[in-house]
Amino acid sequence: MSAPLDLPVRRTYRHGDLRRALLDAGVELAREGGPAAVVLREATRRAGVVPNAAYRHFANHQALFDAVRAAALALLAQEIENEVSATRRLRDAGRRARAALRGVGMGYLRFAWQQPGLFRTAFAARPFGLQEFASNDPAPRSAGGRDPFELLGDALDALVAAGLLAPARRPGAEFMAWSAVHGMAFLMIDGPLRALDEPARVALAERQVALVERGLLA
Q: Which of 7, 17, 101, 186 has the highest count of CB atoms within 10 angstroms of its CB?
């Protein structure tokens, strides 16, 4: 990866530009080095402004990090929706619902191994709640404006609507599915599966997603 550009310092911005520039810089830092790389001073350097200029938009490092984390989650949602969108052409509701569930899982795992820095940032090691998936920050969103957890819920609801998943088994199913692919994601980027090449990762991801599907529908 090329070294960061030595950008000239700018002391004035049109309204709205600086916050967006700082957020974009923070996302790139996370992409390159994960959560530890999101440093407010480096973000200001990349945005081309003096450090104090950032405090009009982000009160401290944590404020910038929270915005970057929300953006990383939104980019994950985009990847999932890209996978799911291909299933919408299927006419049969059952086939469409099963394909959408597989799309959610494959999109999640593909994002993890292709964008490990952003994935680690999205799930940085600290307690978090489901409300953190939503953000009012002007971060990238999926085409449908959904977050990753909502996309998984949509896929499970479609299985119920298609008569494939019993309504009584729907509550809590998202946590069963999520834990399975989330664990596999970290095995692929930080664990014993990190040395796998792309075809091996795809094959293993497909097996894992199929396992989740069979467990839900058994």
A: 101
